[in-house]
Structures are given as structure tokens and as C-alpha cells.
Amino acid sequence: MQPFVPASWVQDRDVAVVDVREPWEYDSIGHLPGAVNVPFDAFRSDEGEAGKLPPRAEWESLLADAGVGSDAEIVAYDDTQGVFAARFVVTALLLGHDPGRLHVLDGDFSSWQREHETTTDTVDPEAASYESDPDAETPLVDFETVRALLPAIEAGDVTLVDTREDWEFEEGHIPGAVQLDWRELVDEERRGLRPADELRALLADRGIDPKRRAVLYCNTARRVSHTYLVLRQLGYESVDLYEGSLTEWQERGGELVTG
């Protein structure tokens, strides 16, 4: 996988560019040439637990209406250092889109705007055909799986990663979790990922070893999506997503540790 791609990569290829910002930002501030707007709230499920995937039929209709076909190579972006775009990409991945054809712009709209053309021109995409793959393998794990893994987590055989902020972690986290705020992975000035050697050093410092299975969670699956893609970018092969995250964990009576 190459989840994060630079602006030069996007410019040189025929890809479906998806802007996940609010419609007013897309229309008034501008967007990448040819980009279609699929706002974050449009693919955030109103059903079930917070942060869960949208219904499959709604997702298929959303992408088809945006002119994104089943075999499209997709690059998503936001203006929040990639965290909302990452959620779009991971949603596509979990619903069966080819992982090798899913990317996040390394940076965001603000970083693109510094050096590249933007436009406020209306984009009227031609409807496409989009079918998801219900049989695709995904990295999802559920409440029961995470609970069953607690002994292995406590023993250090599996790394459970909490991608929230320090204060959230201190207020309550799953037993055995290590804390890694997703924002530590990005360069505030460049608005994209920090250099790979810095990322590997940071992950090593937190005990997140590429040779061990990692399970990631946050609150509602947005921040964890970004961290998942970063680990895959760095070559981590065994990375799982606890989609329900702490929201589901608490609602189902999972144990919490404070401090």
C-alpha cells in the first residue's frame, strides 16, 4: 500500500480526487481542479454506534453520484492534515475498494494551495457505477476480539494503541493501551506526515513494534483511520482497527483504566 501520496503524484495521474470538506468550503474557498465534494457527514453513519460504517447501499449510491467508479484510483483530501480524508479512504477500504487504489493527499488543501492551482469552478460529475465488495477481507476487529486479546496485550504480545489526546487517555482507556496522539504523526507547518525516520523513532519510543500485531482505537474511528494508514505506509503488516472504539467499549461495559 501507498496510502499517502504527494501533490506531484496527484498531478501526474488520472485519479478521482475527492474533497471531504464542508460544501461551503469547497464552493467558496475553492478546491483542487476536478475534485468532487463528498462531505464527511455524508459518509458518517447515522445508524448504530457513533463512527460506524455507513450502510453499504448508501455508500455505493454516494460514490456513484460523485462519479467515482468501483475500479477508480482515489485520492482524498481535507483541510485538517488528512484525518477526515483518512476516514474516507478507510471507509472505502473496509467496504471492499482495492486498497492499492486508495490514497490520501500527503498534506491538505492549505498545503496544496501554497504551490498549486485551485478553483471555484463547479464540477458536475457524470454518474458512475459503484459496487462494493461484501466479501473483501478487512482489518476490522470487534468488542469480543479486543476483550479476548487483553491477556496478550498485558503480556506485550499485542500492542493496543490509543490514538487520542493525552487528557482523553488519562480520563479513561482500555487496559494495556499505549497512547499515541495521531497529531504527533504530522508536521504542523507542512501539514503532512513527518519524515519516515522520525515516525519510526516515535513509534519505537512508544513500543509500537512492526513485528507485533497492533490494534488501534480512538473514540469514533476517525483518528484511528489516519494512524492505521500511517502504519501501513511504514510497512506495518499486522494492524487491526477496533471500529467501535471507546464509544462501544464503554457502552458494552468494557473495563477502563484512568491516569
From TrEMBL:
Keywords: Repeat, Transferase
Domain named Rhodanese: residues: 11-121, 154-258
EC number of the protein: 2.8.1.1
Gene3D superfamilies, alphabetized: Rhodanese-like domain
Pfam families, A to Z: Rhodanese
Region feature Disordered, mapped onto this chain: 115-136
The UniProt record lists the keyword Transferase: yes
SUPFAM superfamilies: Rhodanese/Cell cycle control phosphatase
Name under which the protein is recorded: Putative thiosulfate sulfurtransferase
Organism: Halolamina pelagica
Lineage of the species this protein comes from: Archaea, Methanobacteriati, Methanobacteriota, Stenosarchaea group, Halobacteria
Gene name for this UniProt entry: tssA_2
